[in-house]
Design brief:
By secondary structure, this protein is an alpha/beta fold. About 40% of the residues lie in helices and about 20% in strands.
C-alpha cells in the first residue's frame, strides 16, 4: 500500500508492471489532488461575532477570553475559531456575519454579545443556513421558531425569565409602583415589555417609562421625570457599563427605593463603574456569579465552579463574569452536537450545517454552567427557572439571595 504523507491516508493500490505502474501512480496523484479541497474543508470552523470594542465591550471581552478554553478538537475533528469584533454596532455585526459565511465558510457562529446586533444578523444567518448560538438576552432572537429563527439558538436566560424574577421579588418586598428606564434599542424595548407584563401579573403599577442611549453622558432629565412619579422601585433595562448611569443618577438625586438591574450587568466592570451607588441594588443573574454560595444540590453549581476555576487560572482571581460563561455554554452545546452531526456529513458542507442545527435542537439533559438544557422544535434555549438566581450587590460583591 502507498501512504500519501500530505493526507495521512492509506490507499489499497499495488504498483507493479512497467509503464502501467506510472500510469497508475499518475492517476492516483490526480485523484489525491482532486480530493485535497474536500479534505482541506474537513476542519471544523467556528466563527464568533463579539462586541470587543464600543459600549458593549465589557460583555464581549470575557467571551473572547473564554475562547482560549474551548476544545481544540471535537469528535476527532480539529477546530479553528475565527473571532471578529462587531464594535457594538449592528452594521458591523452584519458585515462580520457575511464574511464568516461567504468567505470563511464557517460551520457555526457564536454571537453576537448583544441583542440589537444579533437581531440584525438573523436574516443573513437564515439565508446562509448557518446554525448560530447567540450570547444575547432577548427572547425575540429565538421566538417564535419560524423559518428564519430555526437557525438561531442562545445560551443566556431570556428577558422574560429575568423580568418575572424581578416582579416576584418586588412583590414579595412590598413594591406597589415601579418606574422603568432602559436603553433606546431592542434590548431596552423587549425588556420593558416583559417587565410591564409581569408587573401587571403581580399587581404592580408602572408609573414611568424612560429611555437613554448607550453613549449618553447624562440621564438627569429622565431621572427627574421618574422621581416626579414617586415609584417604590426602578428597573434599569440596560447592559454593560452604560447601565451604571441610571442608578448613579438616581442615588445622586436622593432616591431611596429599590433599584433592579437586568442580567446584562453581570461583570466586575459594571461593579467598578457603578461603585458605591449600586450598593444594595438587585438583579436576577446567572448562577455563575454566585456559584460558591449556591446550595450543594443546585444543578449549575458544579460546572459553574469548574468554569470559574479554568477562567481564573487564565485571567486571575475575581475575573469571571456571566458573559464568559454564556460563551463557555455555547462551546458545550457544540461539543455535544458536533459528534452527532458528523455521523451525517463532513464539516464545510450544507449537509453538515443542517445536521448540526438538528443536533442542537435535539439537545436534552445537557448540564452547563447555568442549568440544564432541554431544547425542542419550539424552544431553542432549553433552560428553566433554575437557571436564574436573585443577587444583591453589597460592597462591590455579588451576594446570593435565597428565596
Amino acid at each position: 500500500m502507498l501512504r500519501l504523507p500530505s493526507f495521512g491516508l492509506l490507499w489499497p493500490y499495488r504498483l507493479s508492471g512497467g509503464s502501467s505502474r506510472w500510469a497508475r501512480l499518475a492517476a492516483l496523484c490526480g485523484a489525491a489532488s482532486a480530493l485535497w479541497p474536500a479534505l482541506a474543508l474537513a476542519q471544523l470552523q467556528i466563527g464568533l461575532v463579539l462586541s470587543l470594542t464600543g459600549p458593549a465591550a465589557s460583555l464581549g471581552i470575557p467571551a473572547r477570553d473564554t475562547v482560549a478554553l474551548f476544545p481544540k478538537e471535537i469528535g476527532g475533528q480539529k477546530v479553528e475559531y475565527i473571532v471578529l469584533d462587531d464594535a457594538s454596532d449592528t452594521t458591523q455585526a452584519v458585515q462580520d456575519t457575511k464574511k464568516l459565511i461567504s468567505e470563511n465558510h464557517v460551520d457555526a457562529i457564536i454571537g453576537s454579545s448583544i441583542t440589537p446586533n444579533t437581531l440584525a444578523m438573523t436574516d443573513v444567518i437564515a439565508e446562509g443556513e448557518t446554525p448560530t448560538i447567540s450570547l444575547a438576552s432577548s427572547a425575540k432572537i429565538i421566538e417564535p421558531v419560524d423559518a428564519k429563527r430555526r437557525w438561531m439558538f442562545k445560551t443566556p436566560q431570556t428577558d422574560a425569565m429575568m423580568a418575572s424574577a424581578i416582579a416576584e421579588h418586588a412583590s414579595q418586598h412590598g413594591v406597589k409602583t415601579l418606574a422603568y428606564i432602559g436603553q433606546a434599542d431592542a434590548l431596552g424595548e423587549t425588556f420593558y415589555a416583559e417587565v410591564a407584563k409581569f408587573a401587571k401579573i403581580h399587581h404592580i403599577d408602572v408609573v414611568a417609562n424612560e429611555r437613554f442611549n448607550r453613549t449618553d453622558p447624562s440621564v438627569t432629565g429622565q431621572v427627574l421625570k421618574i422621581l416626579a412619579a414617586h415609584p417604590d422601585a426602578v428597573v434599569v433595562g440596560a447592559a454593560g457599563t452604560p447601565a451604571a448611569l441610571p442608578p448613579k443618577t438616581l442615588v445622586g438625586r436622593g432616591f431611596k427605593g429599590k433599584i433592579y438591574h437586568n442580567h446584562g450587568v453581570g461583570n466586575n466592570d459594571f461593579l467598578r463603574v457603578c461603585g458605591a451607588d449600586c450598593n444594595g441594588t438587585f438583579l436576577p443573574a446567572s448562577p455563575v456569579l454566585v456559584a460558591a454560595q449556591l446550595p450543594a444540590d443546585h444543578p449549575a453549581r458544579t460546572l459553574a465552579l469548574d468554569y470559574i476555576k479554568r477562567f481564573e487560572a487564565l485571567r486571575g482571581p475575581g475575573s469571571v463574569s456571566a458573559f464568559g460563561s454564556y460563551a463557555w455554554d455555547a462551546s458545550m452545546l457544540l461539543n455535544h452536537a458536533v459528534p452527532v452531526a458528523l455521523k451525517s456529513a463532513a464539516p464545510g458542507t450544507p449537509e453538515f450545517r443542517r445536521a448540526l442545527r438538528d443536533a442542537l435542537e435535539a439537545t436534552h439533559g445537557l448540564a452547563d454552567t447555568n442549568g440544564v438544557v432541554d431544547m425542542s422544535a419550539t424552544d431553542h434555549l432549553g433552560l428553566d427557572q433554575r437557571a436564574r438566581v436573585m443577587v444583591q450587590i453589597r460592597d462591590g460583591k455579588w451576594v446570593y439571595q435565597p428565596r
